[in-house]
Design brief:
Number of strands: 8
Helix content: 25-40%
Shape: globular
Number of helices: 4
Strand order of the largest sheet: 5-4-3-6-7-1-2-8
CATH superfamily of the largest domain: MM3350-like
Radius of gyration: 18 Å
Structural class: alpha+beta
Order of helices and strands: EEHEEEEEEHHH
CATH class of the largest domain: Alpha Beta
Strand content: 15-25%
Distance between the termini: 16 Å
Low-confidence stretches: none
CATH topology of the largest domain: Structural Genomics Hypothetical 15.5 Kd Protein In mrcA-pckA Intergenic Region, Chain A
Mean pLDDT: 89
């Protein structure tokens, strides 16, 4: 939810987040306050997708970038990054079907397509943000990006592949590429809401 002192939530966005070029597609469908900041959305996406937050991130809409500004950008001929703590989601997604890109880990370059599917009134019986659904597990961190991940999947799924045992051990025994738990994601989101509420009361 928006931070303490933020304007009240008057609208909810239903968004779909899909890991670009994943095949089969890795995706989540979320209900989020329209006025949440992009930085708050970044934290939410980490939880919903299953990333661990150990790398940098940025959002991109057309030629505009949002993230953590780098003072040295002014010395280079590159687009200036707008602070994602000062931009709301409803300032980027203006109409149904609007989309933008969230990139996590500049080395592996995990790009996520975010699309506005619905604009909804606030339901007083629901707690936001919430996950409505999704499919498949997030890739393991630091596996080299989407194309290396597809190779990992091929070896992981084929017991006869020469790198099967290596990939199985590297990914970890608990990782299953076909597993997605809606309950677990929403439990983690509830935990974040409780922590945020506790901080707001201090």
């Amino acid at each position: 939810m928006p931070a303490k002192g933020a304007p009240p939530v008057r609208e909810i966005f239903q968004i779909k987040v899909a890991l670009s070029d994943s095949d089969p597609e890795i995706w989540r469908r979320l209900l989020v306050p329209a006025n949440m900041t992009l930085h708050a959305l970044h934290i939410l996406l980490q939880v919903a997708m299953g990333w661990d937050g150990s790398h940098m991130h940025e959002f991109r809409k057309g030629k505009q970038f949002y993230g953590t500004p780098n003072p040295e950008e002014r010395f280079f001929n590159v687009p200036r990054t707008t602070d994602d703590r000062k931009v709301r989601l409803d300032e980027v997604l203006l109409r149904l079907g609007s989309d933008f890109v969230y990139t996590y880990d500049m080395g592996d370059s995990w790009e996520h397509a975010i699309v506005l599917e619905k604009r909804l009134p606030v339901d007083p019986n629901l707690k936001y943000p919430a996950c409505l659904g999704g499919e498949r597990a997030c890739p393991p961190e630091d596996c080299g990006g989407i194309y290396m991940f597809q190779q990992l999947l091929e070896a992981y799924r084929d017991p006869e592949h020469e790198r099967h045992e290596e990939m199985f051990q590297w990914a970890g025994e608990d990782w299953d590429p076909d597993t997605f738990s809606l309950d677990q994601v929403n439990q983690r989101l509830r935990g974040r809401r409780r922590r945020a509420a506790a901080v707001g009361k201090r």
